[in-house]
Structure formats: structure tokens, C-alpha cells
């Protein structure tokens, strides 16, 4: 769930005697068959989202529905389910055009359902932490930043439609049970996301109904008393086989390796697809996720002592009070209408309404401890509430046209969105109370009254976009993609006493060339741009101009082994200009300056089937990040990343599959000034999996994570941090029909 930050995007060492500075740095955080049980469950879910939290999967009829042939059109991309593959041949996540990965002149990674299931990647952090070129910055237990090519990822999309984050991070735990796959387009993505950073766009592709009845369920038991239940039912909802539905539920609860931390979440998703005719398909869906984290941290552990030496707490150490709680809820409703026209043209209309809420009681510990006594930390309790509503409309047309005797591809359309954010922080009585040594602290801190003072935000963002993209078939071997996205972005309101007003418009071009060396190998080049309006002001009070970002990429892509394996190699150069950086204070008000940063590097990516039964997803990224003064910037970003996930179905025991995952990351550091430098050395983590199919319906699997029990910090994005999970495992029983 995406929410306004209830504290600053970066922590500094705060002085107990400087409350003004402290306050600045802690701003928060056809008709349905009435006899069908699936139809009944879906109708109840979609008609009453409030009931979703308590909903259970409907019991399916034992009689198998006859196979039906649907002659309508679907605007959704083919599913990765049941393929068992670690790649997809096609994706429209970069250009809106139906192109293969090889034909797309940009780096794209696809995380399929098979990979998520094999390695129990049940949340977005698991998915992206194992994706080429992406680093997951877990700054707190329930709030995360994501980085690619040196810049923050701020664009998550759902079936190709989305808005930039309200703040730079994601709050809560986005579950993956409802998604068929996740596409990650690295670099700027001007056609699909005109505003944001030149980092990456993450596109979540939802599961869709099938017309042949299917059902599955799974029970997982893991370390720290973690329990998870999944269920998924889909099939035709009427005798004619023109309407289908699907419902997915997941429930997870348990404790944690962290002291006092007990996360719990409930996920329900329902979707109905109706063929209104041979050329028109209507889809209506709703997803609901509620995450309730007890004992979650706001902020994290101090990373060095007053003498400058690094701290080294137990892996389980937490700064949370025993009453701390962070409750988030995310509801997403969507309606899609797809209509097939003559001559290979299709119109797709999407409307979406999203609502994310947060309700938390948080406890932050600030200060720098003494090495001998452990004393020197102070309390900062706060109660935080937020509501973020988003309304989106997207209309596009895609098809082919003939010019100069050749067929070419064209996509164009409009997009409108509005996001409204309201949040308030109620600060607790007793701010600045000295805390004991947290090394063995039990979280025993009296819950205060949250009426010391309050502050908050109320602002609205509106974006209007016109886009067009075309792929010109200049020759049998040579394709040229040209497009542009013109966006007008407006904001009004305030955030913690600072105006959020901004108004900017920009046209972001997209250019790409693809030359086929063979029917299975291509070289490509691309240029794409992006921009992001800002509300920060400089020392004279003038609002900073929008951030401008651009990306250039040159690479080669191959399809091997009957197009079951995708390989790519690329060099890239990313430029971000005028990003706001705090430059000082005038009284109690911050002022900013615009800084430039450049990222250059190369990467390799491989995904698919190497041989029968042998699947692989791997990637290596190496980059350098320089500022306008040619000095290293963002030193908390690892310069080298290696990702590997592979599974093998044993030929002598075809019902058995084994696999492993290896993640390597280079060292990182953070310079806090005054000679205080925080370092995290390079490290590698190994994960293992095994699965045995008892029969065609029942399977048993086991996963073991962080096999070597590495101890490392989850992030140096902020001046505080905490340790990643030690060795842990799970066992699951899965049934399917």
C-alpha cells in the first residue's frame, strides 16, 4: 500500500536540544448462473467490498464444466500460469505495443507465476529483491524504497495503468497472490509513465478468469510460527460459457525474528469477465488487502556510537514499543471494456478507483548511544492516520496500418488521473524521554496521550496525458519505434506546513531502433525521457523547476531453444537533472537546490528454459553514480548486483524439482559527516527449494532461505537500519484441480 511518509525520507542524527530540527525531520508517516457457487461468491465480494475481509473461497461443484470455446476478444495479455515457464515471449509494458521481449528496445524482466510459486515470493519485496538490477531498501519493518539504475522506483502499475507514489516509498506488504506475473521495465519509461524517475516501472499483471473450471489451495507453515493459507477458484459462470469469474484469497499470520513484531495480512480478489458479443469483453474486479503489523518499527536502530564506532546489536533487536501498531488497507476496483474493431484494431477503456488507508501508533527512538552504557536514545511517539484516494481513466486504441506497402503498428490514447491525500500526525506527550539501553529492551514504555501537538497534509494531484507510439516496419530486418507522451501535472494543497502547489507540463519522447541479425537475434538502441514536477523552493522562495530524466540504452537480445530462453546484454546511461536536495534553513523553513546525477553501467539478463526441465532467471548489473561535481553520490546504492534463481526437474524422478537462488551485492556506505561513516560489506545469500508431486493434484514443497545465516543490514538509505532475517524455512502442501 502506498502512503504519505509519516517521517522524513532521510534521518539525521537528531539533537535532543534542537526540537525544531527534530520536528522537521520527523514529518509522518450476460447474466450469471444463480446456481453457481463461484458466481455467488464473486457477486457478494464485488457488491460489498467491506465483506471482503471475512470472505472465504466458495466450494466448487464436483461436476466439471464442459470445455467451452470463447469467441470474444480479450484485451489482456496471455497468462503465464500453467506454463511452468520463467519467461514470457511478449510484453506491452514498455511501449503499449504487443511486442516480444526481443523486439522491445529496452531492458525488460518478467517474473512469472512459476518463479513466484517455486521460491515462495509472496510479496513484492521478495519479487524485486530477486530481479535483475533492482535493490530493495527496507528502511523499516513496514515501509520500503526500491531502486534501479541508481534512482528511486516511484511507478507501480496494475495492468499498465497507475500513478507515481504519493511519497517515495511503499507502506505495508503488497501480496503477490492475485498476480499472474510482474514486468519490470528498467530505465526511463516515457510512454507508460511520463512522470517519475528514470529508474524502472513495475507493472503488476493481475490474474484473470478461465472458462474451464479450476481450483487450487495451499497451506504453508514457516519459521517463527508463520502460517499462510491460499485459495484460488475460477471457471465459467453460465451455461453458455460466455461469462467467467475468479476469486483469490490469502491469509497469513505469525510472529517474526524481530522482538515484538507480529505481521498479519488478509487478501481477497474477485474478477468477472463477460463476453458481451463476439467483439466486446467487459471485466469488473476488486482487490482488498489488509495488513496489521503489531510491534512494527518506525525508524530503526542507531548504526554508530558517540565515538564513531559501529553498533552491532542482536539480529532480533527492535526499537518498537510493546503497543506499537501499523494497520494499512488497500482497496482497488477496476472496470475494463475491450472492443475488437475490423482490420486488427482494438479499443481498450479502463477505469480504476483506489483507496489506501493507514492507522498507526508508532514509536521512534532518536539519538546516538554511548558505547559503554548504551544510553543516549530518546523517545518520540506518534499516532498517524492517512487516506489516499486515486481515480484513473485510460482510453487507448491499438492496431495496424499500411504505409508504403508494409504493415506498421500504432497505439494512441489519453489518460486522466486524480490523487487526493489527507493525513495527520498526533504527537505523543513525553517526547524526549530518555530510553534505556535497547540491546535487551522489552519495549516497555507507557503508551502516552497523543495530544502534544498535531500536523498533517491535505493535497491533490491531477495528471492529464496524451500519448502515441508507432512501430514502423522499415524493412524485414529493421524496425523503428517512435512515440511521445505529453503530460500536464498540477498539484494544490500543503504538506506539514509547506505548500504542495506545482504546475508543469512536458512532452517526453521515445525513440527505439531494432535490427534483426537473425530471426532469433537483434541489436537495439533506445532513448526515452521522463519528468517530475516539484514543490520544493530555493533560497529565494522560487519553486524548483521539474526534475528531468532521460535514458539511453544500447544492447543485444536473443531468443534461443525454440524461443523458450530470452537473453539480453545492455549498456545504459541515465541522467537526472535538478532533483531537490535540502540546502539549509531560513528560520525553521527548509530551502532546496537542484542537483544533477548520472548513472552509467551495463547489465546481463537471462530467463527461460535452458534444457527440458531446467529453468533459470539470472542477471548481473554494474554501474557507477556520479554527481555534478563528478563525485560518487548515493553511496548506499550497491554498484554491483547479481541475481540467480534456477530449478531443475529430475529426469530420473520427474515428479521431483529442486532449485536454488543466489543473490550477491557489493559493499555500500553512508557518510554521516564528522568522520562517521556507516558501512555494510558485500554479502551473498543462498536460498534452496524442493518440490515433490505426490500425484497430479497434490504436491509438497520446502524452502530454506539465507542458508548460510548471513547477518547484514537491510538498507543504508536512511541513517538508521535493522538486520535482515536470519536462516529460515517453510513447508507447504498444495492441492490443485
UniProtKB/TrEMBL annotation:
Keywords: Cell outer membrane, Membrane, Receptor, TonB box, Transmembrane, Transmembrane beta strand, Transport. Pfam families: Plug, TonB_dep_Rec_b-barrel. InterPro entries: Beta-barrel_TonB, Beta-barrel_TonB_sf, Plug_dom, Plug_dom_sf, TonB-dep_rcpt-like, TonB_sidphr_rcpt. Residues 72-91 are annotated as: Disordered. It is a multi-pass membrane protein. It comes from the Bacteria. Residues 73-82 have a biased composition (Polar residues). Residues 101-199 form the TonB-dependent receptor plug domain. It is found in: Cell outer membrane. Residues 304-707 form the TonB-dependent receptor-like beta-barrel domain. Belongs to the TonB-dependent receptor family. This is TonB-dependent siderophore receptor. It comes from Undibacterium umbellatum.
